[in-house]
Amino acid sequence: PNYCEMADHIRLLADVPFPWHQIQWQRLANQFQNKQLPHALLIYGNKGLGKSLFASRFAQFILCQTPKNSFACGICKNCVKAGKGANHPDVIRVQPEEGKHDIVINQVRSLSDFIVHTSHSGGAKIVIINGAHNLNLNSANALLKTLEEPTSNSYLFLVTELPGSLPATIRSRCQRLPLIAPTREMARQWLVGKLPKEDEIQFDQLLSDAQCGPLLAIDLAGQDVSIQRNHFLSKLYCLTKRTITPQSLVAIASKAGEFAILGHLQLATSIVIKHLITQGNSNSSDPDLKNICRLFAQNKTSKSQQVFWLMQFYDEVVDALKQMQSGANPNAQLILETLIWRWYQLTILSTIKE
Length: 354
Hints:
By secondary structure, the chain is of the alpha/beta class. The protein has helices spanning 9-14, 22-33, 51-63, 77-83, 105-116, 137-148, 168-171, 184-191, 197-200, 203-209, 214-220, 225-241, 246-256, 258-278, 287-298, 303-324, 332-349; strands at 40-44, 91-94, 125-130, 154-160, 175-178. It has 17 helices and 5 strands. The radius of gyration is 22 Å and the shape is elongated.
């Protein structure tokens, strides 16, 4: 299971706001204390940043009867209720039901009914929609009605990794709150003591795999993700040198799973772009990624032209990830084949040579 769904969820919730949350937390706390907190918030960012935990903890702050210095007191009746598995009668959480991808219209109707009823504690009513990008067309339209007609002292937190997948009509009715990944050093310091000692030497690799998402790094620790990623990158290097065919890499990638491979492609592309822009300061510790960067840096095409092509490719990978998570049943194998062929075309366009 995801780290944030494990038994120590409650302990981890007590650590929120995390160091990389501080600015956003204080901004919201000031708005709430000045009675300027918007009815709806769109909380978004990459995986592993604790977006849902942030929303849960801020809900606790809103409901706290005796807040102190922009934080919930942790001891009042409301705080105790919210802290026990985050189950408070004035907080409802909506996400896809087990075994399903979409948040369906009946779930949105339930939250709408919840908001209009009287608060149990006499305070606010709070809805947290986790994976808001999983709203389908009907449920999104139903939610729009709730956003357009807010009830007093009620708040909706839409939490997502893919804000662009939400309809523009919903995004426009929410205040945006981006959660930004911490610096690598901040992430390293936070991870110390939260992983087994033997995993600490793998911090840099874990953080690279997790794109500096500390909670995702914890999820990845102990899995075989790094082995799989390294194998794929070694073959991607061979494809970049054109010593293997795109079909060979497609066959290898299909066995690993399309979604995981898209993540590896996204990481590799971002590292190469950064390497070209910063003239070698990509901070990658992976030897295959370094070799791929070296090949691009040595080719005859201008760096600006390569960056342009690679940024186009990066956008295609991001769009593919959105399709994979859209619930529209895309042809994952075709998407993967297309992207690997596109990468191969980039190496031809760039006339890469050893």
